[in-house]
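I would like you to sit down with the pair of lines that follows and say whether tokens and residues agree.
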Amino acid sequence: MGGLPVEVRPPDAGELYKIDYYDTRVRKELKGRALGYNGFVRLLLRSEKLVAEYRDLEDTCVMEESWTVNKANGQLDWEVISVLPELAVR
């Protein structure tokens, strides 16, 4: 399978405040370097709700979140539905 290499080291300390979760799982090592998982997002529209499923190339759901719009006032609500326990948390 092709794709770009994904490094698993944590982000720089000065950038860490920008992210809530990051994937440090090692998929394989190549020439002594640990490489992580490539992935994709599957978007599902369910009435007033948009659900984003972030999946790796083995089809594991890494994270799932949703946004729901209140049609009466236009407010958008965000919810993290599930997160793979192996993800590092800020």
Summary: The radius of gyration is 16 Å. The beta strands are 21-22, 28-30, 33-35, 39-46, 49-56, 61-69, 76-83, 88-89.
